[in-house]
Amino acid sequence: MAAQSTLRPSPTDRFSELFDRFYERLTARLDRSQRRSPLSKRTTQLIATLALSLTLISSGYGGYRLYRRRKTERDLGRKLLRRNSALLSKDGSRTIYVPYKDRTTGVTIHPTKNTTFDAHRRLFLNPPREARMEDGVPPANIRPGLNMAFLYQFGALMRIMIPRASSKESGLLLTHAIFLLLRTYLSLVVARMDGEIVRDLVAGKGRAFLLGIGKWLSIGAISSYTNSMIKFLQSKISIAFRTRLTRYIHDLYLNNSLAYYKLHNLDGGVGHGADQFITQDLTLFCDSAASLYSSLGKPLVDLVTFNFQLYQSLGPLALSALLINYFATATLLRKLSPPFGKMKAVEGRKEGEFRAMHARLIANAEEVAFYAGGPTEHTLLDQGFRELRKWMESIYRIKVGYNMLEDFVLKYSWSAFGYLITSIPVFLPTLGSLTESSSTLPSLALKSKVPPSAESVECSDRSGGRMKQFITNKRLMLSLADAGGRMMYSIKDLSELAGYTSRVYTLISTLHRVHANAYYPPRGSYPDLFSLADVQGTLHKGFDGVRLENVPVVAPSLYPTSGEELIDNLSFVVGPGDHLLITGPNGAGKSAVSRIVAGLWPTYRGLTSRPRTAGQDGIMFLPQRPYLSPGTLRDQVIYPHTEADMQAAGRRESELQAVLEQARLGYIPEREGGWDTRKMWKDVLSGGEKQRMGIARLLYHEPRYAFVDEGTSAVSSDVEGLLYETAKGKGITLITFSTRASLKRYHSYTLTLGLGEEANEYEFLRIGTASEKDSVEKELQELRERLSQVEQWKERRKDIEEELGKVWIAGGEEDAVGMGEEADLDAPSR
Q1: Are 538 and 594 in contact, with CB atoms under 8 Å apart?
Q2: Which tens digits make up the pLDDT trace of 119-176?
Q3: Rounded to an integer, what distance in angstroms lies between the CA atom of residue 715 and that of residue 722?
Q4: Residues in domain ABC transmembrane type-1 (predicted)?
């Protein structure tokens, strides 16, 4: 029994004990109530049992409801993650689920309001004159560095990173500041304890010495926690800043203004692409900005606190010398500091160019492989990396000399100067602190009246006090030197931060310029013809059809240069059921028409009208190169919708299967493993399957008007006809770009581009009319005339072959004579 008593009670026994205890307490309460209103004991027990049962049932039901709710959320998260979907709210926010450990967790993303963009637009497009920036973009002659432009740019970005005082970022900064102040206070405590420990050690006070060691370890544990929290909070601040800026940039970059297209193809303000800015430059900027808060804030607090402590200990002379030293060091390093901001900005640009070269090779790997262009691409990549390497090596060479100067001044010169300052109370006590000098005068006056033994004790105490003061001042000077060194080192960090700030600010200001279409000619001059500052046409959304009135088709160039005019004053109207086939030679501007209607290219003159919405009952564009998004097979059919949009529209997977059957792709789900299969679809599907997948999207969304740019060039003619008939059967008005004459049977009108001597004229005809037949007869007559010349071409070919034969025979005889002469010359030698 003794052995059993040492075992822990089982959960059942503990629950029984808890039940009995609760039952006794409830019964006791009912007994007290029975004294006021008498009840039978059986009734009391029955009431207690019922109350306890109801309590257990209600608590169990609440726990069961909580369990069911959490299980439902987990199942929903797994389902949405598997289907690459999200939850949409009425306020426009989205809740996406991401894998976390062995479960999923939801992340709610709130979109940036348009009023916020309007409020920030003046910060990025209308900077003050002191910042010396036009259109918000820093000009090339403004070097990124510590100037007014940097202060303005950094302040504008801070408005995005810290939108309000009650934001999460403000709380992180406040908490970080508290820990920085705590570390400063702990540094003062450590300096004082250091002096006490050395004093007790020199005086031989063992007990006090051990007590001081214990205090030292206790403070060390708190200091370790403080330092760890400072680093942790700095990382959290960096992530919070990056989250704010990334979502802000994504909302500007991927909105209805098509900034993701216009930024690279029309504006050109960010060079080769925004990926380098968003992925690398933004990360470096946020890390540098978060570290700046501690590298400047903490040393500044340390300088004020430690200078005040040294002023009390060493007097005003030491403080004056320290201030002069700070000013002289800062001036020296500022004058001799290289332009780190400009060098970092150029390094980031070269990194982006080198990365763009690799991205270009990956995107065109198949074409390069067919041409066997690996050696050429190898040379180009080596050349790009060589330029980047030379620039980085030049930066490192510049840093060698500057780091030597910086280390010598901040470490060794300041340390020697600190020893001189801390020696003032020892060698020049009259110039030390007031407390030190006032305490030494009475001791000298009473020196003759003190016995020898007492005098030795007093000397020992005075020596110990000096030792404590010297160690404390030394510790304070070392901490002060460290704080001042970090302040001086931060000059270089500020210069690098200025380079990152310039690039991030350039990206956001360019996005705002694209978003607001804020393109203006230089002051005092007229805009170039057909430049982005010369857009005078109108794009009207809300017309039941497609209409172009006196619209010049212009291939735009990067801002601020002018574009190239392809067609002068194009005009046509397409109404419901008026299927149009647009033909013409390569480079005539066929695809340019779809770009103008879609809003990718500006309408420089005239009027362009189109339906208001894209997708169902609106307008849809099938580009020449089929695009397959990353995600599930379901996403390929419903793109650009997501699974959440599909559910909100009440569509089912059975409808998707029917759509694939109509596009002659009904075998794809079974072959690939179902709708939730994730693959690199651009590598899985063939060329014809990619184009038919585009047609399947068209049949799924069922728009009223559809632009199809060579959408069936890789499809056989019989399947092509079925696809066009199916699309027309769903009430879709087709506007097709193709050079196939066989597609005329599926259209009502033809628009032929590239006519005339300068290939800038066009012809709009109805298929089957007399004029259209005349044009066909004219083309047939030209073909007959060419065919009638076949015999002449054959005779000419025969004459050319005879002439070539004579040349070859004559050449052969000359070669034979030459070989004979060589044989005669070689005969004697043999």
Answers
A1: no
A2: 888 888 887 765 555 555 555 445 556 678 888 899 999 999 999 888 899 999 999 9
A3: 11
A4: 177-409
